[in-house]
Amino acid sequence: MDPYLVRALEMTPRLVENELRRGSADYDMRPDPDRFSMREVVAHLADWEPIMLTRIKTGVDNPGATINAYDEGKMALDNNYAATDPMERLRAWKADRAKSIEYISTLTDDDFAKPVVHPERGHMLVGDIAHMLVSHDVYHVEQLADMTHDKIVDTW
Q1: Where are the domains of the chain?
Q2: Alpha carbon of residue 156 to chain centroid
Q3: Which of 19, 59, 85, 128 suits a disulfide with 124, CB 3.0-4.6 Å?
Q4: Nearest to 126 by CA among 72, 54, 46
Q5: Do 80 and 39 touch, CB atoms closer than 8 A?
Q6: pTM for this prediction
């Protein structure tokens, strides 16, 4: 297993929480009308955590299985992300993330190498999906950071 995977999975909810606290004056801030507000980002992360864990478990238990695809925009509307309590959804996400970490921590290298088929992305490995959790988190951490601070320098 990638030695940094679990550490990153543990860290990213804290980063999201830090950004939420910075932006608490306006959870509905939406600098880009085509992207989620702060409130919606957290609801989205909370909804996707169990989906991603189910995908991982499906691959481990049924190698080669096709996993479900979801329409995130429809999910946001159906679950009324715009009216959710971001701190409540953060708590739910953290609880579900703990379940993901607990499960992922038990996986072997052979488990990470098991294949799944995503209807839109094609053939993937369980490890790809586990790493997508972190990539997805970082994408939204950056989105939140763009809303909560002035970017002076955009380099490492």
Answers
A1: 5-148
A2: 23
A3: 128
A4: 54
A5: no
A6: 0.91
Length of the chain: 156
Q: Which CATH architecture has domain 5-148?
A: Up-down Bundle (1.20)
CA distance 46 to 61: 24
Q: Which structure tokens are listed for 144?
A: 């939140």
Q: Is 42 exposed, middle or buried (0-12, 13-18, 19+ CB in 10 A)?
A: buried
